[in-house]
Design a protein that fits this description.
heterodimer, A: alpha+beta, 5-stranded antiparallel sheet, 3 helices, B: about 290 residues, alpha+beta, 11 helices
């Protein structure tokens, strides 16, 4: 009998099902460590988690200082893809790596939905 | 309400498809009733969306109301419909002059002159741009039948004399002159987090320019590192949604970072377009500093 997927695994499943998503992961915000991941081969999860956590921290401090409150979603746009991040409960970040032609709005919704359901 | 406004309004009410809205909108603009003029122009555009003169009218109203970003969009649209539209060419020249991009200002005036070689207002505008008239461009150009608008602008400092084609750097605080929110929601900084231009204020008016700039030091390098790690090519922009507003970061050059901040009423996609436009302005300014 197979073990049912954990809530984190289910959340990552939903995100990676979106066409154009190369991988998704849950990252500890405070120390930048990987909590769970579903990444395509070749993506260095550990390094990505550290960078995502650091970038999120800088943005968070800048936005709070600017009176905008904590960041709820951020999107790094690159020539050949994107990195999308939303904060989740318990000091976590949900991170998705996508191809260039992905439906960003859809991935954003899946990330926010996953964050709401307690990923 | 003046008689001529009443008469034109009645004429428009009698025939809503009529192009009389162009005259009514222009009249209201000249009377500085910008809200009413804008409503007339927008209603006219709803009925005649591909009429270049209607976009030009709305652009002039917006420029008079100091909404330069939307004025730029409307004149840009005018030229898409009618590439040799004199009003739009002169209007864009005015906006480029306002932000200190004299090359683009002259290029648009030259295009206007090519299309209307006998228009005396174009030569006068050239003279102003070249610093020959000792005055500034006061407002966007009026349509052809009215005199050129070259009166000194009360709020602006007098134009410095510039030889033709020469570029004089603008003061730092004027990098984004002419762009909406230039002194409260636009910031240009170097990679060390030092402010090059612009300013940021919180919604309650507190100046947070230096604090935010300091926190953003290093963002550009980290974004570049993440992009390389994931084989995503160069990074083009970084947008973030907050509870009280959105920010967009762009990289005008490899050694600078631009931040655009707006409240949540502006969608993120539009914020990105505005940021890319501001980055272009910043890039030109940085090039002139070299």
């Amino acid at each position: 009998m197979s073990t049912p997927p954990s809530p984190l695994g289910r959340a990552l499943d939903l995100i990676t099902r979106v066409r154009g998503v190369r991988g998704a992961m849950v990252v500890s915000r405070a120390d930048g460590l990987v909590v769970a991941e579903q990444l395509m081969e070749g993506i260095k999860g550990g390094a990505l988690a550290a960078l995502a956590s650091s970038l999120a921290g800088r943005l968070q401090r800048a936005m709070v200082s600017a009176g905008l409150g904590p960041s709820q979603f951020w999107h790094l746009q690159c020539d050949q893809g994107a990195l999308l991040v939303v904060p989740a409960g318990e000091g976590l970040l949900l991170v998705a790596v996508t191809e260039a032609d992905v439906n960003v709005g859809l991935v954003r919704l899946e990330l926010l939905r996953a964050a709401e359901t307690g990923a | 309400m003046s008689d001529d406004v009443k008469a034109l309004s009645a004429e428009l009410a009698g025939d809503p498809q009529s192009l009389v809205f162009l005259r009514l909108g222009e009249l209201l603009r000249q009377k500085r009733q910008f809200d009413a003029a804008s409503r007339v122009a927008i209603h006219g555009l709803e009925r005649h969306p591909h009429l270049a003169d209607a976009h030009d009218l709305l652009a002039r109203i917006l420029a008079d109301a100091h909404d330069y970003e939307r004025a730029f969009d409307e004149w840009d649209m005018t030229l898409r419909i009618a590439p040799q539209h004199i009003g739009a060419l002169k209007g864009l020249a005015f906006l480029y002059f306002k932000i200190g991009d004299l090359t683009q200002a002259e290029a648009h005036l030259q295009a206007a002159k090519d299309a209307a070689p006998d228009d005396p207002t174009i030569e006068q505008a050239f003279a102003v741009i070249r610093g020959e008239a000792g005055a500034t461009l006061a407002s966007p150009p009026s349509p052809a039948p009215t005199p050129p608008s070259l009166a000194p602008e009360p709020e602006a400092p007098p134009a410095r004399a510039r030889p033709s084609g020469a570029v004089t750097p603008l003061p730092d605080e004027r990098i984004f002159a002419g762009l909406e929110g230039a002194q409260e929601g636009l910031l240009l900084l170097d990679l060390a987090g030092l402010v090059l231009g612009g300013a940021l204020k919180t919604p309650d008016g507190t100046d947070v320019t230096d604090t935010v700039a300091a926190y953003l030091a290093g963002v550009s390098q980290e974004a570049g590192r993440a992009a390389r790690l994931l084989d995503l090519g160069a990074w083009r922009g970084l947008s973030a949604e907050g509870q009280g507003g959105h920010v967009y970061l762009a990289q005008p050059t490899s050694e600078s970072l631009l931040l655009l901040m707006r409240d949540r009423s502006l969608p993120l996609g539009r914020l990105g377009l505005l940021a890319q436009r501001a980055a272009q302005v910043a890039r030109q300014w940085l090039e002139r500093q070299r």
